[in-house]
Design brief:
There is one protein chain. The protein is mainly beta. The longest helix is centred in the C-terminal third of the chain and has 15 residues. Strand 1 and strand 2 form a beta hairpin. The chain has one helix and 18 strands. It has a 16-stranded parallel sheet that branches. A two-stranded antiparallel sheet has the order 1-2. The protein is 6% helix and 42% strand.
Amino acid sequence: MARRTAGGGGTAVRAARRPEVRLPPLEPYGGGELEPDGDHDGLEFRETDFTGQDGAGARFMDCALTACALDETSLPRARFLDSVLTGVRGVGTNLAESTLRDVELVDARLGGTQLHGAALERVLIRGGKIDYLNLRGARLKDVVFEGCVLVEPDFGGARLERVAFVDCALKEADLGAATLTDVDLRGAAPLEIARGIDRLAGAVISPAQLLDLAPVLAAELGVRVLSDGDAGS
């Protein structure tokens, strides 16, 4: 929630803490398919095709994934720790109930990614475009969406704490039953809320965004907006 500043009557939002990933010297990945519960430490995956592979429960620690294909890749309950994913692409990637901590996701092109029930902490998602991102019931803490396009992201029932949208397009977002604390939406343009406009308590928006959202807010409150010349009924 917004808090009072020390100086007086204004309010401020607590800023999200960004990850500080410092990768060690990496070994190139030796090839082969992912395996459930596999353990990957200090590896570089470059242009690796993981299409359709099963890595449920796998752990990636101090890893770099660059230009990898993740179409229909199954990675539920996977853990990505202190890792950087750059230019990954894929449709239908399953990361349900996964953990992402101290992770940078850069210039991704993803569609229908399943992250429901996942835990994201100190994550930076910068650049790229993600369509139909499923974060239902997920927990996001210290997450920054920067310079990216999110089309119809689903935050239904999720908990967002110290989450910021910076120079980011947020299109037709679903916030139904979500809980927001210190969520900074001022950098989202456009800011489009398809569902859950009533869940914006705990978020910060700009005066211009308030005007843009006024019709949706009026509809939520059941307020009819008529000009002076409109006849009542």
